Fold each of these.
Amino acid sequence: GPEPAPPDPSLASPLGGPEPPPAAMAEEEGGEAEMAAEVVADAVAEVELEAALEEVGDAGVDEEELQKLEAQLAEGGATPADGSPDEDEEAGEGDEAPVEEVEEGAEDVEEPEPDEEELEEHLEGVEVEEHLKDAVEGSLRLKRMLSRDEEDMPDSKRSKLSPEEQMKKTKVQQLIAKWGLQHDAVTRHVCETCTIEELDMIYHSGYCPDKSNAWKSPCEILARYCAEQRERELPTGSACDPIAAFKHRHKLDAAQEKLLRALSHKDLRYVITAFDGSQDLQELVTEAAAVAAEEENTTESALPDSPGVATLGRFNRLELIDPIADAAVFGDANLTFAIKLAKHRRALGHVGRVVATTFEDLATLRERYQEIDESIRQLEEYYAEVYHGVDCTRIAIDERFKGMEGAFGAVYYNFPHSGAIQGFFDGHPVVNWRHENLMRLFFRALRSFMKPGGIVKVASNMGAVGVRYSYIIGSALENEFAHIETVPFLEWHLHRYGRSYGDKRDIYKRPDAKNNQSYNAQAAHRDMVYCFCYAPTGAPLPRQSIKLPPSLKTLKACTDGPFRKVAGHGRDNLAKQLHKRFITEISGTHVG
């Protein structure tokens, strides 16, 4: 619908929000006068809280909630989440959102670090070996989080907020009130998925999502803005050679980068292998020059005097991987990439096997790809293993992967995607959390099955809005997979395979199996192969962070996509269906 008329500038408050009505202002001034005699030091915070209380009261909040807020105000108010206001700001003239009271005893709640009891709760009913629990805990925790959301738990059963969580909730309230989006449940959800530091940055930057955009809703614009801010701390999503990746990993300066680019293959490989950030780089370069070239007939010792950066780059392009270790391919819908890899390994004389997997079951594959049985036969001729119905985030509890711990020297996942949901673009926050969690849980699950020094390659478009490049690189870094290079997809030796959409479209609309000419969903020159090397430190990692999914309540309040034209019971039913699909997907069941 059309935007409401802008407020009269003469009535605007110093913080940019609309001025309260005269009656509300009179009540606010009266409340401020009564409280000033008791608590002078907290007057600013109290008046802001009372203004928020009046605003919420006008919106129709129930009496019980108002009583809680009044009780909090009577006990001394609350400090604004972003600290004390500037001296030149007038107290109480912002449109701050209400601050809900911390429940009694909340200060005793521990930080949300997992304990043994909580871990066992997530793993209840799931058979998993002790050393693999960490590999699957995040996936099971996400499933439990979604399942519990279906239950209409009374307030007494809900977990109490810790002081840090309460502070974050306050900041979220302040931010959405500043934007005038208090009733936008999805925008609130996006804010809740941010860290406290990110909320502070957004609040003080003066940023406000465009509320009049004809194509995107405020929640979509805000989610994209937040993702772009996080990407500033990561390597670029475009082509990135080994030295650029090494420079970013160790925070080197331009002079040090120039020094590395002048090195030969032998010296550069020595420096990259030995440098850990504590040595003097110049001394290490001198040491590398004094080391004699190895006489062994290995690929790593080949061309020792050739230019270092160009020679190293050839390794990732020519797919010169560990010849003995196994290689796994995940999400290969029509198995054409697995065939390409198997042929490549045989030509190089590798003895390691190829483990090819599909997310779909065999019956679904036969409906979409008439040639699938022939593809399976070819792979078996190359002594490859073919598994169907594999969820790459749950391989720790897949019996077919039992005994493969530490076996993979190379892993491939081309163009990952969690599946399209009709009516939503991939970047919409209602569905985008699935793509981010896919990468986070994938790399965490992979840790137990990788050889130290093993290579992981994930191909994706640098401008993808579903699985953003930052989801790939960020998730890898969280799980001790060092980013070593980003190779343009068309320069990769294995890029000529029969790509597919991986969904129902493959039944009637297939990309060109030879040149991918009809795959027009994205520009081929923007496709990249993100390369990582598994470098475990041996130190225990914190539990895997996961992107918070929208609650059933948030889904019911959504007005975008398929929810735009439905209301009442139809909206509730649609929300329940979508929520059920989320649970089915996280359980490892194929949908769509």
Amino acid sequence: EAKQEVMEFVEFLQNPAHFRKLGARIPRGALLVGPPGTGKTLLARATAGEASVPFFSTSGSDFIEMYAGVGPARVRDLFKEARKNAPCIVFLDEIDAVGRKRGKGSMKGGNDERENTLNQLLVEMDGFDTGSGVVVLAGTNRPDILDPALLRPGRFDRQISIDKPDIASRREIFMVHLKNLVLSPELESDEGDLEVAFASISADQATSAASEQIKTESDSSASSTSSSSSTSSTEQKTQKQSAATEAASSSTAATSDTESRPAWWPSGGDSDMPSYLKSITNMDVFGLLKRDESQSSHEEQQQANAKASQAEAESDAPPTPKELLMERYAKRLAALSPGFSGADIANVCNEGALIAVREGCSHITLSHLEKALDRVIAGIERKSRVLSPEEKERVAYHESGHAIVGWMLEHTHPLLKVSIVPRGTAALGYAQYLPKDQYLYTKEQLFEMCMMALGGRVAEEIKYGRVSTGASDDLNRVTKIAYSFCSQYGFSDRIGPLSFRQPEQGQISKRPYSEATARAIDEEVRKMVQDALEKTRALLGSHKDHLENLTSLLLDKEVLSREQVAEVLGPRPHEVHDRALDFYDQATSANNNNNKKQKTNASTSGGAADRPDASSSSGSPLDLNPTPA
């Protein structure tokens, strides 16, 4: 949707008459709003590239100076230069640096340079003619603090929201960044299957092309047979028409030569012409100029046709084996990176390349990219942090409790990975899930999210009879969900369908309700958390054997994938497949088939026995807020 709105500016700059014919005018400006890293600046640059117009880019902080009058002068110079090069695009990045609401944080009793700069920007944006072809784009992630005069129609007529990409968009972004990477020839997949797929695609396209060629030849032979019978009867008519055409063309050429001559040319023709002009006429300068113009336009048309045919051929060409492998990579990585922005995806690809270089590899494999995902989400692996056997066992029980509760409940996200490898600054272990692109949550989903977060604390309580501080982050999440459940979403029967939004961290605001309502909210929150705690105890109490088996396996492997957890717990009772899980399962099944094939080849060739490797069998982090111990 954002691309479609921005393309309207491109069409206006390329063909403004099409809009003016219907009485429409292009918006004078557009504000690109979105989280950091979603590509607001790249989208503005792509707009200028598609429109083939000059692009002026600056940031809001460039206008802020301590000297009076410097900021407004820079604004005037920018728009003056833009009008000279119209049609063009002016992009103001981080406009909130200069476009904040006036009257807040201003200097008392002195000159406020920021407000003067904003006033000059308002005048320039509403002062130039819309027909000049100057389009103003601006980017910000804080539209709530901008001045209302800046957002009114006539300056920024529309706000274009650029959100984080969904799973399909993430796959396309990964395809772009994977092109620049030197991927492994095997790519941990069955290359033979890819060759077969590539050969089948090529064969199908070759068959269709051959059938079209046969059809064209048959049509041409039929047309030639029918035309040969009528050639003798129309030959005389053709000769007469050609003679008439030559006469008309000669008269037209004479007329065009006369029309192409400038206004100062003698009206009497060549007889009244001075001698120095006769020599020019003999050279046929005007004819040469006309021929050059027609030749250049013909060459431009040929180049445009060549580009169009090349683009069509590329779209019709079968995908190469590398493109097929990149597609498989992109699907898996897109499923493993929910909530990632374009900048995060570029960072993951770059981190994967750095890890491959650090390990001395000549190619980048899937394990390198999955390690990069772990690095970006959960932090760097802390190999120097050595836990005592007692602490390591407690962390293993804690993470096993999270995994079992999330596996058995219906409305929780699919589990992908459980790890007791310390990462980052505080996480001693984590369980990672595969959340889908979801925007609405029900009462049952929020309640089971609280149960899953309490699973680690309950597992420690069942095993040791006492709890530790490892569940502090889990309790923080449960408290936030419970207060939103009762006071914001209207899910509490006692509070009713009322919404009291909680103040954000660092904000001081007066509560819009009485002490009695506050006491009722606290009681409802405590009741809800206690209910979730009791149900979690009952669930883990009925799966003590699974808790012991999964903990022992986790202590042995340190990292368990979704398939290894399924071997211990069995199939998930309430498995619901969505697009993200399908992407993950397709890539996982392909890799598993290839691993079996490699093991068979190694055993037949007398190679070394395969040793389980935690790093190669690990999944990838899916939750941007993994459940740490």
Amino acid sequence: LNYVVMLITQIKNNKKKYHVPYDEWKEKLDTFEYRWNSDSNDHYLYNPWTGETILSNISNLALLDRSKSMWAKPEKFPSINAKTTQLYPEYYASRRWGRRKFFGWNNDFDAASAHIATVMRGYMARLALRRYFRQRYHLQVCKFSGYCYYVDKYYPENDTSWFKPRLAFPGDILPAIVFEKDPEDYMQGEKYSRRNFTTGPYLKIQGLNKRNTVRSHQPAFYVENPWRMQAINSYNQIDFDHAAIGTIIAWMDGNKASQLIINEYHLLRAAICNNDWDRVLRCMQENLDNQLIQLYGFHSFSKTEVPLDPTGLLSFAASEVMDLCVETIRDPNSTIPQLVKVFALNAFHNILSIRAGRLEYLNTNSIHEIGDERQKAIERYLYGRLSIFVGFFSTIPTEIVMVYKKGQKDATPEDRPLQRAIDVLEAALKCLGVISQENEIKEQLALILIKPVMHCLEICQEESYITSLGLQLLYNFCYRCEMGQEALLSYCDEEFFAGVRHNHSGDLDVMRNCRKLELAIQPGGWRGNVEEQITREFYDEENKNVDILVLGESNASEMNDEF
């Protein structure tokens, strides 16, 4: 009896792990759950066993393209209450018809041998294809979206892909190994990488702070490697005069020497350090055909401090950058992409935000005419400087959108501005908002731009930020400028203000700018005395809302006492 009990116990302990039958696993490959996406307010399909995710066009399941599926980490168990659906199978390599069906030998040894050989060849081919995929690709998880993307190890300079290679079976491509062992390290990378042992072959702790690490030259830890003394750990140490884009250099990645392929980001990142506008401008001029470098450069100019000379004027580099922004915005040959113009406008706004930038842009010292011709030359010069923005407001690309309005059963077509046009208009309005602060040019600026700006507000009447910027700009035109007020009177009527209130009644900034402009076009409003009245009106409105709230609470408390 004891022997039988021992035998049964041994059998239970040696019980193999449950192997999922092929038919059951094949069904799980095509079983998806309906899940809710709170960002897009729509359903998407998710396979909890493989992690396959289908985000779009799930209304017609027969037309789904599963080669464009996203892949996330699989879950162990599906939801019990989830609504599921079964899709058509996705064909992988030689598994298109499933497993070969066996109908018996029927004493035909040749057919049996051919069947066994065919099955074996298919099995070996699938193993070879799986090894190929595992050698060439690896998975990495995006920490922002949670989805996996595929990295081509044979061609690391190519872009990564969200989509799995078509012939790869789920599970063929494995995640990347984060900590690779160094064959030249006798500790095999375990201690100084996985356990944060920084007193190893590369670095050692110096001082009381554990983050103060320096190069280790201890003979006990030193392993001969020419890259270790050449590797750098900061973009400032890269010599870009000899290291062009695409160059592979030795790079200290934490505690481990690795490789770094120089790209546009590294080039501009090193140039931006220490607010070096000269170096960034030189990089942009040397790579005029590289659109990514132009975008990085203009973006750095829009986010960093504008350099000035000892006299308080723009430095030579800042003046050159401003001329480059103007040429990009003007674009006489219409060859510059719209996205580059947006970044150039943002950089231009940063320069114009300071007094020295506006003085440099509107400087008329380059005009050599004298007498009566000088005033005409100045007007022509300022007109050329101020009219570069007119094209953005005159021709606004739009698209037709079907809109359902209240009380209507059928959708009506409406013209709406494109998002790229909205970005350009916002940047242009911000630039004009700071230029309009100069009192000397307000009259000419108002005569040139009032009509285009009103056209922009009409097209973008439902865009709150553009409406707020446009109303503020119109107010600047008539602030202490009587001619600007007279030019606005023919455009800003009661219908215009009613449309603004109808579309943006809940936006406090838009309502404040609308009320300021409404008071500014009143008799004597151009003198600039509307700020006190605006503050008083909004203060009274807030107190009124507070009184109503307090009164409602007191009435509620009285009703509770009576009850």
